[in-house]
């Protein structure tokens, strides 16, 4: 469990201070309940956290070299990666999208486009289909 404003910051939604303001404004919900109290704790893996009705998910960041990061996000928002890097003082000099969902095309030139294949459409539909929530399974240790 972590403080909600920290979870929102790590998800790239806003800085911690801006996340606090979002909470005070009543724009954040956890499991369907509006959260206005600062310091409220949430589990980013188990709780459904929404800002303005949109679900948040943590970004995955992996350093490739001292000056290069690989950032994986589930839902791109306006300049989200640039804002995330700015929040930690990491300058962005180049930004390159390498995939959209399950679709990758290293041969596609910047600014170009092409029609999707039938298989790519099927994979996108599969990837974007709602997934059933898994209920926790109780286990018992046997000695």
Key attributes of the depicted protein:
single chain, 143 residues, alpha+beta, Structural Genomics Hypothetical 15.5 Kd Protein In mrcA-pckA Intergenic Region, Chain A, four-stranded antiparallel beta sheet, two-stranded antiparallel sheet, globular
**What average pLDDT do the residues reach?**
85
- General shape: globular
| Helical content band | 10-25%
Number of domains: 2
Largest sheet: 4 strands, antiparallel
CATH third-tier fold name of the largest domain: Structural Genomics Hypothetical 15.5 Kd Protein In mrcA-pckA Intergenic Region, Chain A
In terms of per-residue confidence, which ranges show pLDDT below 50 for 5 or more consecutive residues?
A: none
- Ends apart, CA distance between termini: 30 Å
CATH class of the largest domain: Alpha Beta
Spatial arrangement of strands, main beta sheet: 3-2-5-6
Would you give an account of this structure?
By secondary structure, the chain is of the alpha+beta class. The chain folds into two domains: 2-55, Structural Genomics Hypothetical 15.5 Kd Protein In mrcA-pckA Intergenic Region, Chain A; 59-107, no CATH class. The chain contains four helices and eight strands. It has helices at residues 4-10, 16-24, 80-87, 118-128; strands at residues 2-3, 28-30, 33-34, 41-42, 49-51, 54-55, 60-65, 68-72. Strands 3-2-5-6 form a four-stranded antiparallel β-sheet, with no helix packed on it. Strand 7 and strand 8 form a beta hairpin. Helix 1 packs across helix 2 (16-24). The chain is globular and about 50 Å long. 10% of the residues are buried. The mean pLDDT is 85.
């Amino acid at each position: 469990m972590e403080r909600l404003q920290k979870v929102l910051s790590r998800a790239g939604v806003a800085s911690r201070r801006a996340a606090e303001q979002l909470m005070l404004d009543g724009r954040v919900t956890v499991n369907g309940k509006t959260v206005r109290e600062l310091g409220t704790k949430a589990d980013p893996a188990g709780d459904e956290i929404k800002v303005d009705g949109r679900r948040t998910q943590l970004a995955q960041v992996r350093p490739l070299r001292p000056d290069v990061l690989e950032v994986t996000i589930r839902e791109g928002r306006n300049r989200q990666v640039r804002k995330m890097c700015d929040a930690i003082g990491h300058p962005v000099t180049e930004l390159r999208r390498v995939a959209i969902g399950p679709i990758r095309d290293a041969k596609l030139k910047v600014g170009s486009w092409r029609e999707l294949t039938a298989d790519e459409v099927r994979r996108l539909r599969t990837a974007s289909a709602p997934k059933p929530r898994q209920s926790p399974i109780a286990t018992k240790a046997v000695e």
